[in-house]
UniProtKB/TrEMBL annotation:
Keyword rRNA-binding: no
Single GO term (MF): hydrolase activity, hydrolyzing O-glycosyl compounds
EC number: 4.2.2.n1
Signal peptide feature range: none
EC main group: lyase
Spans through the membrane: none
Official protein name in the record: peptidoglycan lytic exotransglycosylase
GO BP term (any one): peptidoglycan catabolic process
């Protein structure tokens, strides 16, 4: 999910929104000679490719029954696995680790399982190690901020939906022979030239004030900035009602991990009053508002939102992600919807997770981003989560034999 940063120093500051939804993108009028496609509302999952995970080598793990997870952990994972099964059975496995048909019997068993949840996993799965199995995990959460559906005093930060002029197209100066992959996101300026879309500093200065639809107004630009990094969240309105919003699209501009820049500039970290975490970054920005605005604008990326009616934020698998049960992965190495077992230095992250989300910086084998739900505790854990350890992927029995792994 989901524009994640390259270097993680606490989930909230450098790991941007894993959470993803996939509605239709906007249609706009463009010059007839241009080749364009609508701006997407989410980063699509890669098309199937040869088994990336297999290229690193697969090794048999210990028996699932010997792994250290308890019944409560397994119960939450089983509920999330059941929610994943319809999507799991309707898509290909980009990693090449499994075939869609491999999951049919396992999902059927999950639908009717009435015994201990731990027994479900130990009876239906075998453990696979990808590469050396050495894992790194961060965390993300669903923030809650104060806001309003309508503008009013004290609620002045617009929460934009996807603007109608955001499109994908090839700039005129890019030769036809070089137009490979997806066209970049941008807009057509007043001269008809295709240019990069407005960056964060321009949007904060009002570049979209008279054009983009607004679905809500936030009370605090700093809290909204971190909600954008998470990619989804809840807006608590003055009457106490809650509006859930989720990722709808992005402006196509580069994501900058402000925590890294702040640490290098000596704003946070050793020798400062501000720890190297999301909490430390927020404290610095609060204490230094002018410099804080400059720092936030280093991140040119801007996230657009839509209102959600689900009982949780949606992940890249298009099912709600659940606190302490859902994890973001790189789908080139982990089957989306598969259970993942983590054994990390931070014990909070130990146990079973279900791969239901992705993220721009969640790249490579054994790279994970754990989802912690919402509330103060979730914010605290996710903001400080940065842990090494080991990982195993759980796949239907017989997968190892299919790959010739003994």
């Amino acid at each position: 999910m989901r524009l994640r940063a390259v270097i993680i120093i606490g989930a909230g500051l450098l790991a941007s929104a894993c959470v993803r939804i996939v509605p239709e993108g906007p249609q706009v009028a463009v010059p007839p000679t241009a080749t364009t496609t609508p701006a997407p509302s989410a980063t699509p999952l890669p098309a199937p490719v040869p088994a990336t995970a297999g290229l690193l080598g697969l090794a048999a793990g210990p028996s699932v029954g010997s792994l250290a997870f308890d019944e409560a952990d397994a119960t939450g994972a089983l509920a999330s696995f059941r929610e994943s099964c319809p999507k799991l059975l309707a898509r290909g496995d980009v990693s090449g680790m499994t075939r869609t048909a491999d999951w049919s019997a396992t999902c059927a068993a999950a639908a009717t399982w009435r015994g201990p949840a731990r027994d479900f996993f130990s009876s239906q799965f075998e453990a696979v190690q990808v590469g050396d199995g050495r894992a790194f995990a961060t965390g993300y959460f669903e923030p809650e901020i104060a806001g309003s559906r309508t503008p009013r005093p004290g609620y002045e930060q617009p929460v934009y939906a996807i603007p109608g002029d955001l499109v994908r197209a090839w700039p005129a100066d890019v030769p036809e022979a070089e137009r490979t992959g997806r066209a970049p996101l941008g807009r057509y300026d007043e001269t008809g030239a295709f240019v990069p879309y407005f960056e964060r500093a321009e949007i904060m200065a009002g570049a979209l004030a008279d054009s983009a639809p607004v679905i809500a107004w936030a009370a605090d630009p700093v809290e909204f900035f971190f909600l954008q990094i998470q990619g989804s969240g809840m807006i608590r309105q003055p009457d106490g009602t809650v509006m859930r919003i989720g990722y709808a699209g992005q402006n196509g501009r580069e994501y900058t991990a402000i925590g890294r820049s702040m640490r290098e500039a000596g704003m946070i970290g050793d020798g400062t009053p501000y720890p190297t975490s999301m909490q430390g970054i927020i404290a610095y920005i609060r204490a230094n508002p002018d410099k804080g605005r400059e720092v936030m604008n280093l991140n040119k990326s801007w996230i657009f939102f839509r209102e959600l009616t689900t009982d949780g934020p949606l992940g890249a698998l298009e099912v709600p992600v659940r606190g302490r049960s859902s994890v973001a992965v790189d789908p080139n190495y982990v089957t989306m919807g598969a259970p993942v077992f983590l054994d990390m230095e931070r014990n909070e992250a130990d146990g079973l997770w279900i791969a239901q989300d992705t993220g721009g910086a969640i790249k490579g084998a054994n790279r994970f981003d754990t989802f912690w739900g919402n509330g103060a505790e979730a914010r605290e854990i996710a903001g400080a989560m940065s842990s090494s350890g080991r990982a195993l992927i759980l796949v239907p029995r017989g997968t190892l034999a299919f790959h010739g792994v003994k």
